[in-house]
Amino acid sequence: MINSSTYLYCVLGSPVKHSKSPLIHNKAFSDNRINAVYLAFEPRDIGQAVQSIRTLGIRGASVTLPFKEEVMKYLDWIDEEALAMGAVNTLVQEDGQLKGYNTDSKAAVNPLRAFGIKNKTVCIIGAGGAAKAVAYGISKRQGRLIIANRTHQKGRDLADRFQGQFIPLDKLSTLEADIVINTTPLGMEPHLEEIPFPGQGLKSGMVVMDAVYTPLNTRLISTAREKGCQTVDGLSMFVAQGAAQFKLWTGIEPDLETLRRIVLENG
Ligand code: NAP
Asked: 209-230 as b/e, with b when 16 or more CB fall inside 10 Å?
């Protein structure tokens, strides 16, 4: 029951109304009998939103597009891995300090470990916040990193940061990669019909992962399946990054299958 002792957690993003984070966190709070609620906010100014978190004593927050990088300058302390990635997706307020973490990297890389990452050629499409976290995880596990991005300089900067190689998007069809990971919004509204990696470049035996999870079956995932690739959908990453946030806030590790089911049941 919500009462005057209920703690508030939230997600800060823009746009954020499509976010499934309130579903998974409210389910986890309720299953674990924690008196807390989780809401979605679309702030105009991330600096002011962070100030509100301090003033109102909000216990923790998820940070999503487009604030993962900008939010860093308003925090008291940032975890070493999040600093290396250059992006924060989780805020924790404790002992009067606002701390920043990033749970995207392990969440993206863990489902890929079964296929092996060391010495594999891994192509990340995109160079934004999600790409930074994934590139960090791949480079830490000694994958051979290739970054493809619409804005060349941003792609080159990310490739240089993790000793990878940059290629323009129009060279993807001839790329020989073991693992392909989409971190652009292509495949979700309003780009539902778009595919970030050309279908003719997808070959049987490749592993294809999409960070987009609405819809679950993106055009990239369905085309990859038709071509005989192994696929990892964006919901695996989404529930894993959310579960890691919940653990940072409460010390409790929620069940990934339960979180996945609540998202699937609520479309
Ligand atoms: P971001 O920081 O804004 O980066 C977006 C990237 O996509 C940029 O590299 C951008 O290229 C590229 N891009 C955008 N529109 C494009 C277009 N029309 N054609 C080609 N490239 C385009 O966003 P983000 O935080 O990294 O998130 C990216 C996606 O990953 C979102 O769809 C988000 O929902 C998803 N995501 C999923 C999870 C999960 O848990 N499953 C976690 C994080 C993010 P430029 O550099 O040229 O602008």
From this structure: bbbbbbbeebbbbebbeebebb
